[in-house]
């Protein structure tokens, strides 16, 4: 893991002290809300429906047990005993009091964490594959790159006031688990024909009001050119990105309006000037960062306990089938801990659960945890021989739900239960779907399926990228849910298509049930996943399941 | 300014706690929706809002909203989140 340098420590400590002073001045009345708001947002402090919300950065989703414990302590001491892990690999506290926030920032700084650049029109906290450094299919660990980008973008004076927020994601595997194609910049670690390392750089992806799949700006960018190339992209965007209309201010619209070729030319022109300014210091820093991300010292031990448990315990077997992922080291496994117990709020963990996760990570996962954008927690390096004990500890904490990748492993933004921008609730829909299919005992029969739910068009719940997406809107004074089908956040990034008119909160779960019934009848075999069936047949049979013939006719 | 179509109440979030608060008859703020003063006429409502924006630093983002029927967003603000029993509905602040 990356270790803070003296510089990093000073920087976050100074920011926390500055914020203490700013809060004090706000409370005394020498700062107005208009003056204070941008300052609090720069430190991740929002005001939502019921309370303030502090969004804490977990860069590229990586944290250690000490940090997880500190988050649990914050939840107990200054919040309501839980935290929400978000689709941006961050963690949110939904009930802090203004006076306490400087203390929280200090507590975070003590464990090398902060809330900087988790809001505002700047380069936001960098995200990455949550299996980074562990996945069997990985070409190279994306986190050193993500950390380099974090250092470069933190407090970057030129990019503190961009036209709009800017999100960068990095993936190091052919299987894109970091949704890179739906980010402002998506970086995929690749090699050229000679085996030299570099990046495929995509630009202009995004969800929200105008969803777009990122387009490849450079198929192969040599590794040493990364920062000057990013500087070039950001400079061009900073200059020509629209500031007259916030709905047209993201780089996806800039790219759409100017065209890929024009942007490419401008970026290349800027890059040729930028390149000379980088003398290789960045690559020295990258080499130092890489040393922090060395593989842990794996142990050599028998895995017979794992095999015995598999043979004897059906619930452990079910857990192993869904929640384990192949690790680089065949004696190890990556464990995904579901934060989606049936009926729970996706992404929420109690402080007690967070402490258990910290304890397990310290004992059995080389002290590492990850937060996934799918709102689960990952134990990236667990020796298979330890899995029975890990499973037992998870079970005791209500954390052993065996549903990863299944219908109840759905992602949902906080929606109108917390968010002031929401047009409808999303967690209640997630909870109801999970409970319904649990009651039907159908989720293993259904197989791999990603449902994603957002409480408004901003799409924090990635609904466009869901095999089934659900968007909560307001219609005539009540909540209404629009369904999209066929979305995909993987390397085959696809934007889901709306099916037609929305469903009320009473109708949405039965509508999803009808979709699933149709899929189960239509699929070739149990091994044909929902998305594959949908791609084979198109939307028509699914629309027929959702709407009456009359409704479909009216749509035409 | 939205058209005044029905009796309104004035609501905001408390600066220190962030909690949803309602403007009462005495001019104080209450965390209970039922304490909210109801404005039957547009002018006093708008004047009161203006006055608060200018002079009351104890709250953030004050606004006027239709008193009844309550929009579902306002119902959640008045009660707390529907997914957890931890807001005003549980007597918590
Ligand atoms: S999608 Fe909308 S409702 Fe959900 S968290 Fe984002 S802004 Fe809030």
SS-based class of chain B: alpha+beta
Number of domains of chain B: 1
Mean pLDDT of chain B: 91
**Overall 3D shape of chain A:** globular
Name of the CATH architecture of the largest domain in chain A: 2-Layer Sandwich
Cα distance spanning the termini of chain B: 31 Å
The helical percent of chain A reads: 25-40%
Give start-end ranges of low-pLDDT stretches of chain A.
Answer: none
The tally of strands of chain B reads: 4
Mean pLDDT of chain A: 97
Largest interface, Cβ cutoff 8 Å: A-B, 30 and 24 residues
Note the beta-strand portion of chain B.
15-25%
Number of helices of chain B: 2
For the CA atoms, what is the radius of gyration of chain A? 23 Å
Structural class of chain A: alpha+beta
Provide structural commentary.
Chain A has 556 residues and is an alpha+beta fold. Helices cover 39% and strands 17% of the residues of chain A. In chain A, the strands form four sheets. In chain A, strands 16, 17, 18, 19, 20 and 21 form a six-stranded mixed beta sheet that branches. In chain A, strands 1-2-5-4-13 form a five-stranded antiparallel beta sheet. Chain A is globular. The mean pLDDT of chain A is 97. Chain B has 93 residues and is an alpha+beta fold. Chain B has one domain. In chain B, strands 3-2-1-4 form a four-stranded antiparallel beta sheet, sandwiched between helices. The interface between A and B is medium-sized, with 30 and 24 residues. The structure holds iron/sulfur cluster (SF4). Iron/sulfur cluster binds next to loops of chain A.
């Amino acid at each position: 893991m990356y270790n803070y340098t003296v510089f990093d420590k000073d920087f976050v400590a100074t920011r926390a002290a500055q914020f203490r002073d700013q809060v004090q001045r706000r409370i005394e009345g020498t700062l107005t809300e208009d003056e204070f708001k941008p300052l609090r947002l720069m430190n991740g402090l929002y005001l939502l429906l019921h309370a303030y919300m502090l969004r804490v950065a977990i860069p590229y989703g990586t944290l250690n047990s000490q940090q997880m414990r500190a988050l649990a302590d914050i939840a107990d001491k200054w919040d309501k005993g839980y935290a929400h892990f978000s689709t941006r690999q961050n963690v949110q506290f939904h009930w802090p009091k203004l006076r306490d926030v400087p203390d929280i920032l200090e507590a975070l700084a003590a464990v090398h964490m902060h809330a900087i650049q988790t809001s505002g029109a700047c380069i936001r906290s960098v995200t990455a594959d949550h299996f980074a450094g562990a996945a069997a299919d990985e070409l190279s660990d994306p986190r050193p790159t993500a950390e380099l980008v974090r250092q470069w973008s933190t407090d970057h004076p030129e990019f503190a006031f961009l036209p709009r927020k800017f999100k960068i994601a990095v993936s190091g595997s052919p299987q894109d688990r970091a949704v890179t194609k739906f980010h402002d910049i998506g970086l995929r670690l690749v090699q050229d024909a000679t085996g030299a390392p570099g990046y495929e750089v995509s630009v202009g992806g995004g969800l929200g009001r105008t969803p777009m799949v990122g387009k490849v700006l450079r198929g192969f960018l040599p590794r040493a050119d990364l920062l000057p190339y990013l500087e070039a992209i950001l400079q061009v965007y900073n200059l020509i990105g629209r500031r007259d209309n916030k709905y047209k201010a993201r780089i996806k619209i800039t790219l759409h309006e100017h065209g890929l070729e024009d942007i490419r030319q401008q970026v290349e022109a800027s890059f040729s000037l930028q390149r000379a300014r980088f003398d290789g210091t960045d690559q020295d820093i990258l080499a130092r960062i890489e040393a922090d991300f060395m593989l842990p010292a794996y142990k050599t031990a028998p895995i017979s306990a794992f095999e015995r448990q598999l043979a004897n315990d059906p619930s452990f077997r079910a857990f192993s089938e869904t929640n384990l992922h192949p690790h680089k080291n065949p004696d190890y496994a990556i464990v995904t801990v579901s934060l989606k117990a049936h009926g729970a709020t996706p992404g929420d963990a109690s402080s007690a659960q967070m402490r258990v996760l910290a304890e397990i990570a310290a004992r059995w996962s080389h002290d590492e945890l990850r937060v996934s954008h799918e709102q689960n927690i990952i134990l990236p390096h667990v020796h298979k021989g330890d899995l029975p004990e890990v499973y037992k500890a998870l079970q005791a904490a209500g954390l052993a739900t065996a549903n990863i990748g299944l219908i109840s492993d759905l992602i949902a933004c906080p929606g109108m239960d917390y968010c002031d921008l929401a047009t409808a609730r999303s967690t209640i829909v997630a909870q109801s779907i999970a409970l319904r299919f649990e009651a039907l005992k159908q989720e293993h029969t259904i197989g791999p399926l990603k449902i994603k739910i957002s409480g408004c068009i901003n799409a924090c719940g990635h609904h466009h990228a869901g095999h089934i997406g659900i968007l909560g809107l307001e219609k005539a004074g009540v909540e209404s849910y629009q369904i999209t089908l066929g979305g995909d956040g993987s390397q085959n990034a696809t934007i889901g298509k709306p099916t037609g008119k929305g469903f009320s909160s009473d109708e949405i779960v039965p509508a999803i049930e009808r979709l699933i019934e149709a899929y189960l009848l239509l699929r070739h075999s149990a091994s044909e996943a929902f998305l594959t069936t949908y791609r084979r047949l198109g939307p028509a049979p699914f629309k027929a399941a959702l709407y009456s013939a009359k409704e479909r006719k009216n749509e035409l | 300014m939205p058209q005044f179509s029905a009796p309104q109440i004035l609501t905001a979030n408390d600066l220190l706690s962030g909690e949803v608060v309602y403007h009462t008859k005495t001019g104080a703020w209450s965390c209970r929706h039922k304490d909210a003063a109801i404005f039957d006429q547009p002018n006093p409502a708008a004047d009161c809002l203006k006055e608060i924006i200018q002079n009351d630093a104890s709250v953030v983002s004050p606004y006027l909203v239709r008193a009844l029927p309550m929009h579902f967003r306002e119902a959640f603000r008045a009660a707390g989140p529907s997914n957890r029993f931890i807001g005003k509905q549980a007597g918590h602040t």
